User: Fold this.
Amino acid sequence: MQASLSATDIACRRGDRLLLRGLSLDLKPGDVLQVSGANGMGKSSLLRILAGLLTPYAGTVQREGGIGLLDENPALDEHLPLGKALGFWRSVDSTPDTLIAHGLEPLMDVPVRYLSTGQRKRAALARLDAQGPQIWLLDEPLNGLDQDAIAGVGALVDAHRRADGICVLASHQPFPLDDIQMLDLAQFQPDFAQ
Amino acid sequence: MSGTFTTLLSRDLRNLLTGAHGAGAALPLLFFLSIAMLYPFAVGPNPTLLAKTGGGVVWIAALLAAILPLDGLIARDLEAGFFDQFKLRDISEEWVMTARLLAHWLSFGPLLILACFPAAALLSLDGETLKLLVLGLIAGTPGLAAVGVMIAALTASLRGGAALAGLLLIPLALPILIFGAGALARSDPATLGFVGAISLLLVAIAPFAAGAAIRASREG
Assistant:
């Protein structure tokens, strides 16, 4: 099945504030789109709308293919060692062990609550990679990562697009990958923004 | 799908029994036994009085003990993003809540039922009362668990939701208490049929109500 992700005329409202309006996008296999914009402009909300976790105020989203989301919530049991916490998702997703491939092996016995922000992010990325959905939605994937890990995320997204996957990433930092589409949310702000 | 259910259930059970998500299984049990132990100190050691009122006290203790695990029953997973990840994997909220309800009941129900035996000794309850008490709790605790899951899901995204959850459980659990303790007062096992019926109804609607609450919290 060919993956695709398209949104038509999306508007997003949070509380009594209209964050975005008139946003459309159409992504095909191999596309990587970076969504940029200042804090509070609706990057995370847009990703949640694309994921189907949030209903858009107006507009429609169409997706073909499985969705994977990486956001600020790693969904790992804080009290468990990393190996066991990821083991739960391994058994939900019926996927093989991926700790070694992502250099997380030394952290396997460390309880998740002692891991740094960057280490949690890498663990969540390892889970996303193993889950293997065709559409990746990454919310601030570079936050808290060191230079090596940032390059690692770049390589991971590159491999994903080579495998005909789609990736939408929200980040305010430059992403270490050439030839990616950019979407600046500032142009979709309503004129009457309060 | 049944493999997923087992995985969900075993994670929920592990978290609820060990107290990783809040009180743990031991706390409601100790709380329950503490009430049974304190009651004779408060009203005096008159065996007739204790035998007459003790059954009702055990029911109140069970109801209050069911409040303790509500803190963190749902809220912690909501905050950590578990429900979002389940949704992206097409695991329905109802399914997740069914597993949570079963795990929640298993983590406090059977222990409270077993604890009726030492509690009956402390309150000098006779065999007939004990029997009605145990049967009543077998019929009633699933209903208490169902009310607990619904309330925990509804209040999960609220600040200070745990305190509110405790307060909300009391009126909703009242019918179970009325019929459960009523069976003791009238020594009538037939009344326990009502307890079972209310429990069944609550268990049947809880996964849907709690699932809807989780979905609503995403839009908040």
Chain A touches chain B at residues 48, 51-55, 66-69, 71, 73-80, 88-89, 91-94, 131, 133 (CB under 8 Å). The beta strands of chain A are 4-14, 17-27, 32-36, 58-64, 67-70, 135-139, 166-170, 181-184. The longest strand of chain A covers residues 4-14. The longest helix of chain A spans residues 147-162.
